[in-house]
């Protein structure tokens, strides 16, 4: 009873249902906004990661006179880095070389550089502690987090007799191109970083540092994605285990895809297929670090040929600033 003697009136069932319905509507309106904010924050963090990687490459260049190679490979006979080597054999990727310039000197100092490794030194048992360490700077927050995979000599792309496998590794989402596929329609096929072994002289990037891509996304490995859909198997995927560990050879031959994302073509440039192309978990585009240290978001509507021209370091192409 109230002080004046009247009974307090409670909510009716209809009123309660109306309130619940209003709350549900408000939540429905707020959720897309919250999701957009989260996506924007993840995209910003991804851009910052690539910015840090690009700046680390310049710090490497300041210390060594050139950008890091896409892959550091030792000649198995002479034990010299990159001399006389034309294929991915023993060694590691650019991700290892940049560790000291990404405030990861302690991890770098643990890495065993072994020119006698049969195949990738990143896969040595002695380097498992390093290779298994997930690094946020090498992971796009829009992609599934903290991916690892087990590999054997066969699944990693090694010889079946390799003593450097099996093992496990933590995966990253950022790649460099070591070549541009001719299917793009581009005449020049040279990408920013040297594909095998030697640091890359900045003077060879004659198209201009601000017009040449150094790093981009090829996210989601070791899982296989086509046009936003995770595939049930990795059949048809280029080296699903060997490419993707941040310490490995994360360098690919850039190509475009057909409209279905299932094969090479010129209809789809970005977010088509994470086997051999630029692929992100951002909406309508992907992030790119250019050789001048800047970072750009390029939309999925960019022509395959335009993106190929940006990957080329010395083709002399004039790329309109409309991408």
UniProtKB/TrEMBL annotation:
Transmembrane segments: 12-34
InterPro entries referenced in this protein's UniProt entry, alphabetically: DUF1559, N_methyl_site, Pilin-like, Pre_pil_HX9DG_C
Top-level taxonomic group: Bacteria
UniProt-listed PROSITE patterns: PROKAR_NTER_METHYL (PS00409)
Family matches, as Pfam families: N_methyl, SBP_bac_10
Segments forming domain DUF1559: 35-300
Residues in the signal sequence: none
Keywords for this protein: Membrane, Transmembrane, Transmembrane helix
Protein name (Swiss-Prot/TrEMBL): DUF1559 domain-containing protein
């Amino acid at each position: 009873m109230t002080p004046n003697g009247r009974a307090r009136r409670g909510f009716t069932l209809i009123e309660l249902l109306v309130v619940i319905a209003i709350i549900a509507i408000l939540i429905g309106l707020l959720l897309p906004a919250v999701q957009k904010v989260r996506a924007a924050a993840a995209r910003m963090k991804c851009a910052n990661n690539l910015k840090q990687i690009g700046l680390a490459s310049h710090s490497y260049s300041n210390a060594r006179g050139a950008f890091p190679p896409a892959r550091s490979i030792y000649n198995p006979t002479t034990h010299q880095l990159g001399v006389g080597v034309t294929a991915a054999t023993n060694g590691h990727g650019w991700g290892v070389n940049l560790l000291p310039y990404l405030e990861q000197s302690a991890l770098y100092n643990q890495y065993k550089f072994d020119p006698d490794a049969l195949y990738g030194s990143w896969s040595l048992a002695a380097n498992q502690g390093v290779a298994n360490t997930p690094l946020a700077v090498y992971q796009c927050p829009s992609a599934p987090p903290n991916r690892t995979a087990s590999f054997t000599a066969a699944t990693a792309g090694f010889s079946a007799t390799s003593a450097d496998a099996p093992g496990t590794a933590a995966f990253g989402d950022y790649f460099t191109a070591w070549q541009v596929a001719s299917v793009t329609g581009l005449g020049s096929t040279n990408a920013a970083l040297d594909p095998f072994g030697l640091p890359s002289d900045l003077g060879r990037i004659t198209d201009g540092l601000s017009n040449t891509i150094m790093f981009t996304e090829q996210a989601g490995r070791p899982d296989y994605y086509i046009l936003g859909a995770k595939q049930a198997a990795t059949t048809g995927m280029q080296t699903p285990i060997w490419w993707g560990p941040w310490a490995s050879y994360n360098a690919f031959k850039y190509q475009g895809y057909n409209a279905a994302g299932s094969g090479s073509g010129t209809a789809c440039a970005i977010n088509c297929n994470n086997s051999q192309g630029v692929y992100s978990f951002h909406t309508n585009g992907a992030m790119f670090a250019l050789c001048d240290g800047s970072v750009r978001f390029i939309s999925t509507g960019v022509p395959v040929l335009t993106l190929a021209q940006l990957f080329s370091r010395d083709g002399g192409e004039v790329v309109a600033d409309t991408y």
